[in-house]
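Aim 2 progress update. The chain analyzed this quarter is reproduced below.
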Amino acid sequence: MPISRPRLYLFFGLFIFALLLLYPAGKVVKQTYSAYSSNQELPDHQLQSSSTASGGKGPNGVIFMLMPPSRVHQAQLALLSTENRFNRRLQYPYVIFTVGEEIDKITEEDKAKIHWITEGRATFATVPLESWNVPDSYDKAKVEESLHNIGFSMGYRSMCRFYSGFFWRHPALAQYDWLWRLDTDIEFHCDVPYDPIQKVIDANALYGFVQINPDVDFVQPSLSGNVSQFLAANAHMLPHNANHGFVWNGKEGIEKALKGGAGNDEWTRMTMYNNFEISHKSVWENDLYKKFFDYLEQEGGFFYERWSDAPIHAFAVAMSLRKDQVVQFTDLGYQHQGWAYECPRLDRCTCNRDAVPARGFYDNAHAWFDAPSYNVKRTPKYVQDLN
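Predicted structure tokens:
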């Protein structure tokens, strides 16, 4: 007796469904990334599989941003870009930080738009004023003098301090292992067919970035010297194979830094632009980094000067991680503040690499991956294990 056409369709439908259940999702994601990273074309059925494979069951991660009320519309566009390019598939939740009572300035209409864009995966969290305002113990006259001489607003300096020592401690991020920072003024010019956090995991890494470039020292003239003094005072806590050569010039610069005598002449000024930053919480939630931030906080440079979170993160990563524990992303078409950005030659990107602003992109990632190796010779009393 011949099988009817409806029964035949039902049979094939059940067969395909069983294959999707049995085929490991992680393998699909890895194949997707592997194909795109080598500029290979990927069959449509694999793209569809990778889109449905994660289903919100991937790494325990969160995307977070700090949103001043004046940047609500900007943030909505950033969230829309993030959702359209990859996160509607990956389903990572969002935490949107506002400071103090600023949440009251966000209208219900704007909250509803964010809820719609993120399909209800965004929650708001408040940054307490003690994590934002100038500590009472600081010399207020010295702070005012710095604002006049160096510039940059009090709010900008507070942001740098928050992103240096408080974001990873906030209760809103406590349940997550992977912390993915984005800013309100960003855009992705490429579809991302893989999970960037999973890429970091697959590489056995703990930190991911997009771009490295030198930072300026005139706004933070004493930062490198303070870092050097911290290294000398806490040499017993340093892993022996961290990538010190990323932030200090050569063997002589590294040795001078470890002895507490280095300054801006020895500092390479190389910095990951951490407006895009994927990190495992252990990078910050360990005794070495906590002691490092407390030391900087005591010195007061966030307000006496304008110490930035980007070089502070770079110093921290260099003193605690190996080269292979850091991953660069070069295929996202990620842009910040309308600046020049990397536009890959990929069909899934909608940018023009030969036109402004993409044409002006430059990057110094080699400064991390090709930094001179140096093993700390002291026998450490304690080694913070970030693996």
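The longest helix spans residues 72-90. The longest strand covers residues 61-66. These observations will guide the mutagenesis experiments scheduled for the next reporting period.
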